[in-house]
Design a protein that fits this description.
Structural class: alpha+beta
Helix content: 25-40%
Largest sheet: 4 strands, antiparallel
Number of helices: 5
Distance between the termini: 88 Å
Shape: flat
Oligomer: single chain
Order of helices and strands: HEHEEHEEEHH
């Protein structure tokens, strides 16, 4: 009987207060952090681990990647990492297979880890050239006069 009784007491206690706390959701925050040695890695890991709501911290020095899982906000994690003096940003890469034009000037990045390219909005990529489309349609099987040109 403790369950319903606790529910009613929480309901009554919440009715008196006008502002209720919003529950944070469990999420994974990925950051690109410049780390060169074990000391840098340890400094960042200790700073992030001390935050309230952090469940796990995973660091890949080879990829320069910090993954934090817990009830945290991405901007707060980023601010905490920058407070250690390290250069950090939200993870800017996506897997190579998810991008339509991985070698476009905006997406390709030499500094990206293997198998990753920069995350870019598709609207910012250049549109295919309309003359190229005309040439391919000119020599298609649907064009009745295509064989006379060849």
């Amino acid at each position: 009987m403790g369950g319903p009784l606790e529910y009613v007491s929480d309901l009554l206690a919440g009715a008196g207060s006008k502002k209720q706390k919003k529950m944070k959701q469990l999420q994974t925050v990925e950051l690109k952090v410049r780390m060169d040695c074990d000391g840098c890695e340890l400094k960042v890991k200790n700073a992030v681990s001390s935050m309230k709501g952090v469940k796990s911290v995973d660091i890949s020095r080879k990829e320069q990647k910090l993954t934090v899982t817990g009830y945290v906000e991405p901007n707060k994690v980023l601010k905490k990492v920058k407070a250690t003096g390290k250069r950090a940003e939200i993870w800017p890469y996506v897997p190579y297979s998810l991008v339509a034009h991985p070698y476009a000037a905006q997406t390709y990045d030499k500094k990206a880890p293997a198998g990753y390219v920069r995350k870019v909005e598709y609207n910012s990529l250049p549109n295919p050239n309309t003359t190229d489309e005309q040439y391919t349609a000119f020599f298609s099987e649907d064009n009745a006069n295509g064989c006379t040109i060849m």
